[in-house]
Write a structure and sequence with these properties.
454 residues, alpha/beta, Alkaline Phosphatase, subunit A, four-stranded antiparallel sheet, 14 helices, 16 strands, globular
Length: 454
């Protein structure tokens, strides 16, 4: 198969020229011109990466990024995710079983796209659209090549985005042994691989951090671990199990770690009044959620520990690590039309982006990619607008009012994903591949090439 480097390098060369020209023009530092021409040039290269850190903001379309930027750092400010030297967009559509486009994806199909390089139907986890056959994932391929692997999320570890890396399921709902109604051929009794929780620990991923304790507390019904909970199965497979920050701090390198920090999804960091029919009074967000249990690790704390553990495991290896970090509840709060919850989760995700970029600054053989799985509902609209659905007015950190509209479904219903293309940005080896407009499945190729998985 011909290498797609010539087109990308032509685009990259043009970008360097444009960047160099822009660098000669004085711009306010607040405008975010943080990457100079030489930084852009350094990012436009091929070569092999020792490590890959993939950051997924679930549901984090351009509107969600802009909302978080406007509220937290101002319209003329820049988030950490805005500071990558190379930025493009990718399309996110799923497919029907016959391969025709399904224009609005869910997280299962979109995640399967970058995890396997194969488009699939909504609801399916890393299996083909028509024949329902398992397709090897980036994590599985990385393990075969000797890389350490990890997955960090603020969702349940069995939710779609983490699931696409370490499991294969006919339907995303098949999260624990008691949840297999839609996956009859995937059950252990039918000779299948079992639930997403069982598969995740059976894959012996080095680091698994997130929520979903209730899935791992379910009892295995067949096979070698019958009668045990999935958590007990994990311990039999050599996992340390931790449930809070105190436990996280005691983890030592050299042993697999399963961090289960909530029964379901990890509670969000910010709260506020959700959008309402006819709008809300102007509000400031509450940046310390009183319902978030003390000792719950933040996303950046979990990500920092994951990097530390993965790096320590590979200290004497030529191969490094592959780590996926997901800010999951940007999407979940968008579904709930809760702008404060959504902004707080985007800000938390952005701190994880900074962590990854800081690590890459000291380890330039690390490819860092940040993107979303799909777009979502929230729109910034004029204050005088009267949306037909739900809206809320916020008072930003700049002291200005901002109106957010949620109108992809009727009030009382979950707000919907959108079919828009979304941002992808990168730095490090093979980062030039994100330039232009690409397909979600091209991210699989970018990471595969960077780690030499094929």
């Amino acid at each position: 198969m011909p290498k797609p480097t010539r087109r990308h390098l032509a685009v990259a060369t043009a970008l360097v020229a444009a960047t160099a020209a822009a660098a000669a023009v004085t711009v306010p530092s607040s405008a975010g011109a943080s990457d100079s021409a030489h930084q852009a040039k350094a990012a436009i290269k091929g070569g092999k990466a020792k490590n890959v850190i993939l950051l997924i903001g679930d549901g984090m379309g351009d509107s969600e990024i802009t909302l978080a930027r406007d509220y937290t750092v101002g319209a003329n400010g820049r988030l950490n995710m805005d500071r990558f030297p190379l930025t493009g967009s990718y399309t996110t559509y799923a497919v029907h079983e016959d391969g025709t486009p399904d224009y609005v994806t869910d997280s299962a199909a979109s995640g399967s796209g970058w995890a396997t390089g194969v488009k699939t139907v909504n609801g399916r986890i890393s299996k083909t659209p028509g024949t329902d056959k398992a397709v090897p994932t980036l994590l599985e391929l990385a393990q075969k090549k000797g890389y350490a692997t990890g997955s960090v999320t603020t969702a349940e570890l069995t939710d779609a985005t983490p699931a696409v890396l370490a499991s294969h399921a006919t339907d995303r709902s098949c999260q624990g042994p008691a949840d297999m109604a839609k996956c009859p051929t995937d059950t252990l009794a039918a000779g299948g691989p079992g639930s997403i929780a069982e598969q995740s620990v059976n894959h012996k991923v080095d680091v698994l951090f997130g929520g979903g304790r209730k899935r791992f507390d379910q009892t295995v019904t067949d096979g070698a671990f019958k009668g045990l909970t999935v958590t007990e199965q994990a311990q039999k497979l050599g996992y340390q199990v931790v449930t809070d920050n105190a436990g996280l701090r005691t983890v030592k390198p050299g042993q697999r770690v399963l961090g289960l920090f909530a029964s379901g999804n990890v509670p969000v960091e910010w709260t506020g009044r959700p959008a309402a029919v006819g709008g809300t009074d102007p509000q400031r967000c509450v940046t310390a959620n009183p319902n978030r249990p003390a000792g719950t690790p933040s996303l950046v704390d979990s990500a920092a520990k994951a990097i530390q553990l993965l790096e320590a495991k590979q200290k004497h290896s030529k191969q490094g690590f592959f780590l996926q970090i997901e800010g999951a509840s940007i999407d979940k709060q968008d579904h709930a039309a809760d702008p404060c919850g959504q902004i707080g989760e985007t800000a938390a995700f952005d701190r994880a982006v900074k962590l990854a970029r800081d690590y890459a600054a000291k380890h330039p053989d690390t490819l860092v990619v940040t993107t979303a799985d799909h777009g979502h509902t929230s729109q910034i609209v004029p204050l005088e607008a009267t949306p037909p659905g739900l809206s809320a007015t916020l008072v930003t950190d700049e002291g200005q009012q901002l109106k957010v509209n949620y109108s992809t479904n009727t009030p009382g219903q979950s707000q919907e994903h959108t079919g828009t293309q979304v941002r992808i940005a990168a730095q490090g080896p093979q980062a030039y591949r994100v330039l232009g407009v690409t397909n979600q499945t091209d991210l699989f190729t970018t990471i595969s090439e960077a780690l030499r998985l094929r």
